[in-house]
Amino acid sequence: MAPLPSLRLLWPSILLAITAILPPALAHSHINYILINGLLYRGFDPTGRSGATPANTIGWSTTADGDEFVPPSNYSTPDIICHRDGAPAKSHAPVKAGDRIHIQWNGWPQSHHGPVLSYLAPCGGSDGCASVDGAQLNWTKIDNSAPALLSETGGPPGNWATDVLIASNNSWLVGIPAGLAPGPYVLRHEIIALHYANKPDGAQNYPQCLNLWVEGETGGGAAVAAGATEVLPGAGATPATKLYRATDPGVSVDIYKTLTTYAIPGPTVVSGAAPVAMAEQKMVSLSRGDGTPVLVKGTQTVAFPSETPGGHRVRR
User: Fold this and answer.
1) Does residue 192 sit within a domain?
2) Which pairing describes strands 39-42 and 289-290: parallel, antiparallel, or unpaired?
3) Residue in 266, 241, 243, 263 with CA at minimum distance from that of residue 74
4) Locate the Auxiliary Activity family 9 catalytic domain: which residues (predicted)?
5) What are residue 193's DSSP bridge partners?
6) Distance of alpha carbon 175 from alpha carbon 297, whole angstroms
């Protein structure tokens, strides 16, 4: 009788078989914080691993406590707006038109190739974006990480925008358009992972929302008009539930086949936007201290009350 092959020789085949029957991993990532001109502002951690959420977070809360994704079958539901049960933060990060925002993700899996996208939506409420209904927001794309698929050197799946993000310490730079009017906005930042996009309902969207207050030249400035939908004149805007379709070629795609081009999902980037070039995404932004988020009161802002170790708020 012929000798049985050793387990050592069979082990690669066993691993492949196990991998084939395992469901996709659920836990992935979220935005930990953002840096604006060296000042740090906290995002929302849905997992709770970083402790209690600070009251002055600028990140929208969600119930995606396993860092799950939104599948194409939910593109027409509120989940795609600012993730599952997304609810607005009370505070806003002050930023000036023309600034760059350093967005820091809590890691990103190497295998999860895809585009990195950013959108803006104005809020016209008396408290800025603190109580806005996400379903009423209309989004304008300001960055799509074009060309998203940088090259296929060495063969598929190639080198993607997410690889650039990983190489830059899991972070991405977003340029705020220079022509943006003062006032409150929501920044919707998103990664679409395509490693299962060759399967039905396989693409994985990770939308994250952050509140911003765009300052005027003197730090104030009239808020954008109530009901405003455009971030720039003639920009146009789209509800999040109409951004993508499951049949879009950039959503239903096999990245393990040789691709000559990749059709980035969603609308085109607005004229007047300021996407940060891929080569500049390698820049490293370092924190020099905590920023002071603001509360919006009509057309003005006040510093968000800080908290002492005993839990008491101190007004600045």
Assistant:
1) yes
2) parallel
3) 241
4) 28-260
5) 204
6) 26
Say if 4 falls within a structural domain: no
Q: Tell me how far CA of residue 70 lies from CA of 81, 244, 258, 281, in angstroms.
A: 10, 12, 26, 26
CA-nearest of 202, 173, 180, 163 to 270 is 180
pLDDT (tens, 9 = 90+) of the chain, 316 residues, equals 444 444 344 333 333 333 333 333 445 899 999 999 999 999 999 998 888 889 999 999 999 999 999 999 999 999 999 999 999 999 999 999 999 999 999 999 999 999 999 999 999 888 999 999 999 999 999 999 999 999 988 889 999 999 999 999 999 999 999 989 899 999 999 999 999 999 999 999 999 999 999 997 544 445 566 666 667 777 789 999 999 999 999 999 999 999 989 999 999 999 999 999 999 997 677 788 999 999 999 888 999 987 544 443 433 3
Rounded to whole angstroms, the maximal C-alpha distance in the chain is: 88
How far does Cα 164 stand from its chain's mean position?
Answer: 15
207: number of Cβ within 10 Å: 25
CATH code of the domain covering residue 229: 2.70.50.70
Instruction: Tell me whether residue 314 is in a domain.
Output: no
What is the helix (H) or strand (E) element at residue 16, kind and residue range?
Answer: helix 7-21
Instruction: At 313, give phi and psi (nearest 5°).
Output: -85, 140
Could you tell me if residue 124 is inside a domain? yes
Q: What angle do CA 107, 34, 195 make, to 5 degrees?
A: 30
Instruction: Collapse the DSSP code of 295 into the 3-class scheme (helix H, G, I; strand E, B; otherwise coil) and give the result.
Output: strand
Q: Report how many domains make up the chain.
A: 1
Query: Domain residues for 190?
Result: 26-291
Q: List residues bridging with 208 in a β-sheet.
A: 189
Contact of 83 with 66, CB cutoff 8 Å: no
